[in-house]
Specification:
The protein folds into two domains: 199 residues, pyruvate-formate lyase- activating enzyme (Alpha-Beta Horseshoe); 46 residues. The two termini are 36 Å apart. With 246 residues, the chain is α/β, with parallel strands linked by helices. It has seven helices and eleven strands. α2 links the parallel β1 and β2. The protein is globular and about 55 Å long.
């Protein structure tokens, strides 16, 4: 892992993203079962020249104390937490066999925001899981505003063969599609409000190849013409166009 980071830094990468199918399970199969926080601390300690380290989707219940401290207080850890949330209703989470409940997710975000107010939240959310009632869907919608979730990956449920969920009572496909659309609209509304609050705020933006880049909080921002790809520059957006700060 350290060698791979070193290789990318040698090529001039200013930001490293740790990603995987279940990245927070790292270390479970190693001697002593070291937590992910130890790996991240090792990366940050070994490479003081690394400007940014960003996490991909994480399972909130597997965030160990050291990783929590890094998210809360390490300036090179990007203030962007993407949760494998899945749903906002406890009963549906239980039927999904998830290890967290709604209060766990809300408590995690609140504790981090208390120490790092600029933290932004993304989440994976499933619409129309079997047995999902109107009340369950309402809970799914409400957690978007409660956290609030500004980066949402919304997935309409579809059955997979030989899974317990495929044997549960299924919802009508039209209902699933409509609920997914409502969830996306809810995230869009929260995101629009968040972006509006960033207008006039200086942001450190990493330029990419398409004339835009990402701020530390994962807001998409256009960059000045000629800004070299891979460099970081402080930009103060003055407007929003098609969901991008300009």
């Amino acid at each position: 892992m350290l060698h791979e980071v070193e290789r990318h830094l040698a090529k001039g990468a200013p930001e490293i993203v740790l990603t995987g199918v279940d990245v927070t399970s790292w270390g479970h199969d190693l001697p002593g079962a070291p937590p992910l926080g130890e790996l991240i601390a090792a990366v940050l300690g070994a490479f003081p020249e690394l400007q940014r380290l960003r996490m991909s989707s994480v399972d909130g219940v597997e965030i160990d104390p050291l990783l929590l401290e890094l998210f809360a207080g390490e300036p090179r850890m990007m203030p962007h937490l993407h949760l494998s949330l899945q749903h906002g209703a406890d009963l549906i989470l239980k039927r999904m066999k998830r290890r967290h409940n709604r209060a766990d997710a809300v408590g995690l975000v609140q504790s981090l925001r208390a120490r790092r107010p600029d933290l932004t939240v993304g989440a994976d959310i499933i619409a129309g899981f079997p047995t999902e009632s109107d009340a369950h869907h309402a809970e799914n919608l409400s957690i978007i505003a409660e956290l609030p979730i500004v980066h949402g990956h919304i997935f309409p449920y579809s059955p997979r063969p030989n899974t317990p969920a495929a044997r549960m009572p299924q919802l009508d496909k039209g209902v699933i599609k409509a609920r997914a659309a409502e969830l996306r609209a809810a995230v869009s509304a929260v995101r629009a409000q968040w972006l509006a609050g960033l207008v006039g705020t200086p942001l450190n933006v990493l330029a990419e190849k398409d004339g835009a880049g990402y701020a530390e909080n994962f807001a998409r921002v256009t960059v000045p013409p000629g800004m070299p790809v891979g460099t970081i520059q402080t930009i103060t957006p003055t407007a929003i166009e098609q969901g991008i700060l300009t």
